[in-house]
Amino acid sequence: KNQVEQSPQSLIILEGKNCTLQCNYTVSPFSNLRWYKQDTGRGPVSLTIMTFSENTKSNGRYTATLDADTKQSSLHITASQLSDSASYICVVSAFFNTDKLIFGTGTRLQVFP
Amino acid sequence: ETGVTQSPTHLIKTRGQQVTLRCSSQSGHNTVSWYQQALGQGPQFIFQYYREEENGRGNFPPRFSGLQFPNYSSELNVNALELDDSALYLCASSLSESSGNTIYFGEGSWLTVV
User: Fold this and answer.
1) Do B18 and B77 meet the contact criterion of CB atoms below 8 Å apart?
2) Which candidate, A113, A110, A109, A111, places its Cα nearest to that of A35?
3) Which residue in A54, A99, A103 has the most chain B C-beta atoms within 10 A of its own C-beta, making it the best mutation to test that interface?
4) With an 8 Å Cβ cutoff, are A105 and B105 in contact?
5) pLDDT at A100 over 70
6) For B57-114, what is each residue's pLDDT tens digit?
7) How many CB pairs (< 8 A) connect A and B?
8) Which residues, in sequence order, are bridge partners of residue A50?
């Protein structure tokens, strides 16, 4: 069964600190992996997209990594800001179903001053 | 802004009623998908439309139906509403099904069934 699991479920950090969120997936055959940021009650906003051949992709203070062999991805947030408080969702697509996304349940990040 | 517009933003319905949610996709995007997101959960795929044809369906009963119009806007219809249908309904648009295309989400429609 295609699944996406994320850890931790929730995370609290102080402003200015770094953090890393984890994503493990069993989706096959793998097509691409996306990280989204979702503020409470809002629609998800795309942060990164990575295909099979990409290991790292950055978007400002967000850096995503992908290990297709171990089926793991991480999202690293550098120098966190209060506005980073949100849910971060890992989303995986399978070949032949590239737009039918399989979502993780997300990591709820809270950044405190 | 993602260019994907959903309406209404919030609505309350009673059990047994019917609801229609609307989505205006980003200009030029011919693929639209609908997702249901319960509180504290990740979105669950309902169905997808590509050039006005249904192109995949998740594990939702037939009372969840949809349409895509020639201008690629879309509707989600839910009949015989149940309490468990209370959720955030998200519309996502993209250009074709090519891998790696960015998928843009709307802000969602909050449905409460009482």
Assistant:
1) yes
2) A109
3) A99
4) no
5) yes
6) 989 999 999 999 998 899 999 999 999 999 999 999 988 655 567 889 999 999 999 9
7) 68
8) A33
